[in-house]
Design brief:
Elements (H helix, E strand, L loop, with lengths): L3 E8 L5 E2 L15 E8 L2 H8 L13 E2 L5 E2 L22 H7 L8 E6 L5 H15 L3 E5 L4 H11 L9 E5 L3 H11 L3 E5 L16 H18 L3 E5 L12 H5 L2 E7 L5 E9 L7 E7 L2 E4 L3 H6 L9 E8 L2 E13 L7 E4 L3 H14 L7 E7 L11 H13 L7 E3 L2 E2 L5 E2 L4 H10 L4 E5 H9 L8 E5 L11
Parallel strand pairs: 6-10, 6-11, 7-8, 7-9, 9-10, 17-18, 19-22, 22-23
Antiparallel strand pairs: 1-2, 1-3, 4-5, 11-12, 12-13, 13-14, 15-16, 16-18, 20-21
Length: 481
């Protein structure tokens, strides 16, 4: 039967289809996101092949059975208590920081998307994981749609070390998804890498690679390969200048895990963060250092970030956040400068700009600072972008220190959330943060009064560190030298 193509309009944001063009997507509400695409109407055999992506009883999407007459039968329901958990079957990547971000390792049959700027180290960390899995588990297939085999071999010679490249690591320079599927059936790998999804295309579609229909078709085929054969699949994606994923966002909804690789290419520090994870938490981060032999794990990230902190500097305050399962000690720097022309400038790196404006308003109201004619610059050292409100008090005190010229002892750690009334709200995991501060040699920690009372009730106050509980930001004036 001949395949007929029909014209539909597809949303570039959510992937929803419409028979006619509309200015606003009726599903996600995005404006001017509808693009014309030609979609092939597959025949019955193609529909059976695509629907029966997993064998009967395998569970997951596409768990159907094919009857003798070729008709599709619904899958059988299973008791949830009898479904085997994937926690015991995770695959070790050989990189502890990557395992931490993934939630304990790769889950068989999962799709993981990793994004980052060019040259940040995406291909390097994937190749290091592929080398370990090939040496310990079996055949690994690396599909490259952008680089040649020679380019990947040069990188592999650098990162694989003296042990050499494993005989089970295979490379395939291909952009046709049907050819990739055929190679997977014959090679039967235990791990599949596709670099990148924007270069892959299906011969059944007439649209260009990277379009909504091509990304959706290639993503569905990779999902079928992974779910049917219990193969973890790593997909590399491009990013825009703003750091967002390039192309249609439908690929983010299809995959099980979205990893973001960030860092400054002029510095060695790289941060791997999970933005979506169906098999673990999204609050974990992994730290790496880019070296000549590849990416090196950083276990003591707090020590690296604090080792260059100057002693008793104006506008510099040490703070902490709790990322996933570990505390992280950071340095917040602030600079105020008189504004001579126009409106005062507010620049924030690492924290939300609207949050900074709120803290400046609290400083003016509760601390008596005049910041209307002052340019304010705030930076979290190391390029870290901490989540949550742990750093509110540190940001406020850093601005106050720079504006008044008064200093805070560099061995003082400051944490706490500031409300609009100037009162401090309690933060979570303060006891674990205190233990990390003790390990790094801090002598004093300033935190909300409720956290201090809770620590005293639990009898966790240590003689080696002074705990100061404050109720309002106005009480912090005594902390300055």
């Amino acid at each position: 039967m001949a395949k007929k193509a029909k014209t539909v309009f597809v949303c570039n944001e959510c992937g929803s289809e419409s028979a006619k063009w509309v200015g606003q997507c009726p599903v996600c509400g995005a404006w001017n996101s509808m693009f014309e695409q030609k979609v092939v109407d597959f025949d019955a055999s193609d529909k059976r092949r695509r629907t029966s992506g997993a064998p009967a009883g395998a569970g997951g999407a596409g768990a159907h059975a094919i009857a003798g007459d070729g008709s599709i039968q619904a899958g059988r329901p299973e008791r949830l208590a009898q479904v085997r958990s994937s926690e015991t079957a995770r695959i070790d990547t050989g990189i502890k920081e990557l395992n931490r971000v993934l939630g304990g390792g790769l889950v068989p049959g999962s799709l993981c998307l990793i994004s980052g700027e060019p040259g940040i180290g995406k291909s390097t960390i994937i190749l290091q994981a592929a080398q370990h899995i090939a040496a310990s588990r079996g055949v690994v297939l690396y599909v490259s749609g952008e680089e040649s085999e020679e380019q990947i071999r040069m990188r592999a010679d650098r990162v694989c070390g003296p042990a050499g490249i494993s005989e089970n690591l295979f490379i395939l320079a291909e952009t046709n998804i049907e050819n990739v599927s055929a190679v997977c059936e014959s090679l039967n790998p235990v791990f599949l890498i596709v670099d990148s999804i924007q270069t892959m295309y299906s011969a059944d579609l007439e649209s260009a690679p990277g379009s909504v229909s091509q990304v959706r078709a290639c993503g569905n085929e990779l999902m079928r390969i992974g779910k049917t054969n219990s193969i973890p699949v790593f997909i590399v994606a491009h990013v825009t200048k703003s750091g967002d994923l390039a192309g249609p966002r439908i690929v983010e909804h299809m995959v099980d895990c979205v990893l973001s690789f960030t860092g400054d290419r002029s510095h060695e520090l790289r941060i791997l963060r999970s933005q979506k994870n169906r098999f673990g938490t999204t609050s974990e981060i992994g730290a790496f250092e880019m070296a000549e032999e590849g990416l090196i794990e950083i276990e003591n990230l707090s020590g690296i970030l604090m080792e260059e902190m100057d002693r008793d500097s104006e506008g510099a305050v040490a703070t902490a956040v709790y990322e996933g399962t570990r505390p992280l000690i950071l340095e917040v720097q602030a600079l105020t400068s008189p504004c001579n022309i126009g409106f005062a400038r507010r620049t924030a790196l690492g924290i939300d700009s609207s949050r900074l404006n709120m803290l400046l308003a609290v400083l003016e109201k509760k601390m008596g600072l005049r910041l209307l004619d002052q340019d304010v610059y705030v930076n979290v050292v190391g390029g870290i972008k901490p989540e949550g409100t742990y750093t509110d008090l540190a940001v406020a005190l850093a601005v106050y220190s720079s504006c008044t010229g008064r200093k805070i002892d560099s061995r003082t750690l400051v944490i706490g959330e500031i409300g609009l009334t100037g009162d401090l709200r309690a933060v979570q995991n303060s006891d674990k943060i205190i233990r990390e501060a003790q390990r790094l040699g801090f002598s004093r920690i300033v935190l909300p009064i409720k956290n201090a009372q809770h620590l005293r009730e639990k009898d966790r106050q240590s003689a080696s560190i002074e705990i100061i509980g404050i109720r309002n930001i106005a009480q912090t004036r005594d902390l300055f030298q």
